[in-house]
Amino acid sequence: MSDKDTQPLTGKDLARKPRGFPDKREGLIHAQAKLVETVTGIYRKWGFEALETGAFEYADALGKFLPDDDRPNAGVFAIQDDDEQWMSLRYDLTAPLARFIAEAGQTVGRPFRRYAAGPVWRNEKPGPGRFREFWQCDADTVGAPGFHADAEMIAMGAEALRAVGMETGEFVIRVNTRRLLNGVLESVGAASADTRLAILRALDKLDRLGASGVADLLGKGRLDDSGDFTKGAGLGDAEVKAVLAFAEAGAKTRAETLANLSKAAGNSEEGKAGLAELEAIAVALEALGAPEGDVVIDPSVVRGLEYYTGPVYEAELLREVTGEDGKTYRIGSIGGGGRYDDLVARFTGETVPATGFSVGISRLASALAIMGETVKLDGPVVVLNLDKDSPAVALEIATMLRRAGLRAEAYMGGSGMKGQMKYADRRGAPAVVMVGSNEIEAGTVTIKDLEMGAMKAKAIQSNEEYREARPGQIEVPRDQMVEAVRRIVEAQG
Question: EC number(s) (predicted)?
């Protein structure tokens, strides 16, 4: 370590933040809040009630269910309480729900249908689209053993994604079941936990590596483009073929996929039970009106290796995005869930059936921002301060607009007219209000519709013509100002 590394930071070097904890400005905050409002609105429509738990839970109550076994004793941010008990920032919204159910006991009726939205924290290596602090929006049903409860979660998740603007073909929810996976693992003789984990991790890479790459990982191993070697699961050729046949059983319809799975899933009792689960879910999805394109049965889905006990679901954004580098790519996973019947049993010893669905709000907001589809901000009307010696008129007009229910501010900086107009444009203002000495004498105000003015200005050829035309600009009596501004704001909204 150099002397420079040991010196205390000063000045601009101090202005740094930990990786994975993004700063958010109004555009992203606004988009995120709108997503939460929309998704929780769907949850409420389906009969779920709100529950909010604290940011911290005792670490031994949370357990550790993050699917990152390569980094043992990591994954959470923890501190010691004053009684020396370890507390952790919650890493999801489901483990706190299980604690709440166990603690509340019989005072909470079952089934208990709850939704929650809020930040969660994971002490993982951050990367593109992977944060240490991010928002989730969950719905869970505790105390419902039937697979129609899983189907409800899936169909409701699809409706939530449509509600935030996803169209047919732009997203899909993929459904599988842990029991079917277990049946396949039994049929190929995967007895050890390490072998099973290696197989499941290989299947999870099917979309990225393709059948040949997964076949290598199921067998002896794979050498990637960088020269790194990943040890395989050690299956023989026949077993690799059987696992791939299962993973690639997906078809155009849920019925066709189920027919393929009945041939590929093997004859174990666990496999048969898993197939029955998916058949029951498929029937319920039809009753719930979930379109085939929104929800598919996909045996390659592997989710929550240490968490889920039955059906699992993965929501994926399919719409392609062109990046600044000109390359086309997909955002990928934006949510999911599954059945977790063993979670409450950690506290009570009682197996309590539970199922849930989660929308990754932060990831979805980032995806919409990349695609240029965040909701347009309702910037404030800016009242220009044209009399620096006496700003009272600007303050008075801004107050009138706010009292009428409009978002408005009086300019507080020290710039002239040109600088104030640039400020209003940067704030996303729908309009500016100007009151100079001429307007004061005439009892009027000048209002400039910034959106209309920008549109009309494109057709103007010279500065002289622009000054004469004053595009998007009107003068009205002061007692008509509020309604004139309101019309401009509503037209742009």
Answer: 6.1.1.21
- Residue 96, classified by CB atoms within 10 Å of its CB into exposed (0-12), middle (13-18) or buried (19+), is buried
Could you give the 3-state DSSP secondary structure of residue 440?
helix
Which residues, including other chains, have CB under 8 Å from residue 334's CB and lie 6 or more apart?
A: 161, 171, 315, 316, 317, 359, 360, 363, 364, 367
Q: Report which residue type is found at 19.
A: R
As annotated, the binding site includes 92-94, 122, 136, 140, 303, 307-308
62-76, 137-151, 377-391: range with lowest mean pLDDT = 62-76
Structure tokens at 67: 């699917």
Regarding pTM above 0.70, the answer is: yes
Q: Is 290 helix (H, G, I), strand (E, B) or coil?
A: coil
Q: Which residue has the higher pLDDT, 170 or 13?
A: 170
Residues annotated as binding site for L-histidine? 92-94, 122, 136, 140, 303, 307-308
Residue spans of beta strands (DSSP E) within 224-310: 229-231, 295-297
Overall average pLDDT of the 40-54 stretch: 97
CATH architecture of the domain covering 381-492 = 3-Layer(aba) Sandwich (3.40)
- From the list 446, 402, 362, 339, the residue with the least C-alpha distance to 132 is 362
Containing 243, the helix (H) or strand (E) segment is: helix 237-247
Superfamily per CATH, domain 17-179+246-370: Bira Bifunctional Protein; Domain 2 (3.30.930.10)
Element (H, E) at 462: none
